Amino acid sequence: MRLEADLEWLFSRQRFGMHPGLTRVHSLLTRLGEPQRAFRVVLVGGTNGKGSTAASLASMLRAQGRRVGLFTSPHLTRFAERFVVGGELLPDDVVLRSLHQVRPHAEAIEASFFEIVTALGCLVFAEAGVQDAVMEVGLGGRLDATNALDPVLSVITNVALDHTEVLGNTVELIAAEKAGILRPGRPAVTGAAPDVWPMLEAEGADLWSLENRVRRQSLGWDGEQVVVRLPAGVELTFRTPLLGAHGAQNAALAAAAAYRLGVSPEAISRGAQTTQWPGRMEVLTVGEGRVLLDGAHNPAGAEAVVRALRDLGVGKLPLVFGAAADKDLSGVAAALEPVASQVVLTRARLSPRSADPAALAPLFPGHQVTLTESPEQAIAALRALGAPLALVCGSLYLIGEVRPLLLGTVSEERERWQ
Question: Mur ligase C-terminal domain location, by residue (predicted)?
Answer without folding.
Answer: 279-394
